[in-house]
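Q: What would this complex look like in 3D?
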Amino acid sequence: MPNWIKTYVKLVDALNYRIGRFAMYLLYLLMGVLLYSVVSKGLGTPANWPIEMAQFTMVAYYMLGGPYSLQLDSNVRMDLLYGRWSDRTKAWVDAFSIFAMIFYLVVLLWGAYDSTVYSLGLKWVDTEVLGLTIPWPQTGFLERNPSLWRPVIWPIKVIMVIGIFLMLLQAIAFFFKDVARLRGEEL
Amino acid sequence: MSYDMIAIMMFSTMMVMMMTGQRVFGAIGFVAVLAAVALWGDGGSNLGFSAAIKLMKWYPLLTLPMFIFMGYVLSESRLADDLYRMFHVWMGPVPGGLAIGTIFLMVVISAMNGLSVAGMAIGATIALPELLKRNYDKLMVTGVIQAGSSLGILVPPSVVLVLYAMIARQPVGQLWLAGVFPGLLMAGLFIAYIAIRCWFNPELGPVLPADERAQISRAEKFRLLRAGILPLLIFLIMMVPFVTGYTSLVESSVVGALAAVAAAIIKGRFSRKVFEEATRQTLAISCMFMWIILAALAFGAVFDGLGAVKAIEGFFVGKLGLSAWEILILMQLSYLIMGTFLDDTAMLVIVAPLYVPLVSALGFDLIWYGVLYTITCQIAYMTPPFGYNLFLMRAMAPPEISIYDIYRSIIPFVGVMILALMLVMIFPEIALWLPDYVYTK
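A: Here is my prediction, written as structure tokens for the whole assembly.
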């Protein structure tokens, strides 16, 4: 395989491993937030933010942890037939069927991007930057959660965009690995 | 093309995609977003992502990582060892007693955890080698562990019932209470089956030899009973604040998870390895579940948009002219058949949204149906070719147990489970009495 593909696979694997290891510990943040909620109730001053904070943490947990879970091969496959195939056949079929997953992730990313743009009220305004007039992003009306706490919603959406994008990178890395396997290489 | 036709095409495309062995979430999500974009163009492109927002707002789902984590802490730190020894010593003198003790052990573990993975791991690592060493019949042993661990999703707390609650929009508390007696009934039927088989055929489950029994003093026997205290405490710490309404469902699950960690620390078994293993596996399993649910929500949204549920209802009621009960029985049968082919999580999130509105349209109680549904899931967990428990068992069992042994071993237990399913269908009170009693007080 060409060198740039090898570098790409190595980079993506390493990046997603690190981010996944970080996301893994968000579980304890989640516990902390919910425990705080229990304690604050006990003290008679219930906090208004833990529920949403916990929801955001959970989203970050599975979105950023997703690529690492792919690396761990924990995502179930229906192995009625798959389980009986040789490694070569598996690689052949995977090299095609991975595009289904890639397509799904691309559409997901598209939706996530649109939604983030909406949450930020993002507009592209012609601005002079370093003497050039180019469209420059400008935030407008910030979407907030309709709750007591009223947090802005864009940070979690940005995290989702990043998470889905990383999933996409990992899926493409899998495609390269399958192709390499068919050519008798192991990436 | 008619909408019904599109729905059928979507369903069959999804089945084909799953057959290729691609990751289940990719297969489901692909069909969902492809259909959405094809049907509704630019507007449909956001459908996949709006499922993520829907998922975020579904608060009870936060119990999922907590219960997974708790299960791994319980099994990795080998907290159940003492518990197993207790049942071992007390049940040893009865024919088949160790197998019966294993069922008891599974009930206790089920009461602490909402998934069947923990029971499976504990059964395979602690009970299985012991039982084989005592010359128990290997078919009996593997069957007992698989059937027993499946109780995890029926006895509260139960993650499957939490997911069902999301789909059916029913209160989780009542669903959990509804699972109590059916779960105990099923455990009782398992025990009855083991006892009867071993009574007529003692070599299936030989009694503990007399000299081995004599080694254990009476005082030692009573000391072992203390092993039961810890699980009871964990269960109470978790469930009492929830039932009294002090903590929410999600908060209770966190309390339970921390109680399990505390128990492991007290026992001196919360090592670095346990911590690492539990944390990593929790991420892996949670991500698997979340991504499948994410994809399936999108799939369900397209199906809703097509009005597929109305079409199915029209087909059963209008075209076939069936009565409500006939449809219910047909639905359970189709579930059992699909359960043998479909992954149980896929079944949960794809088929349930189709059936649940139909059940409520037919005038059945959705709490009761939740229990029926969970029992069907349990059976699906165990039936080849695609059963989660089967794969776990194959991964964990010693090499002398072949995959065909595992397949064969579940047959009688599936029979017992179908009996339990029928009993709960005929006598809904088994499920509904407790929630009615607690919530109408």
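A: To summarize the key features: The mean pLDDT of chain A is 91. The first strand of chain A starts at residue 123 and ends at 129.
Q: Very helpful, thank you.
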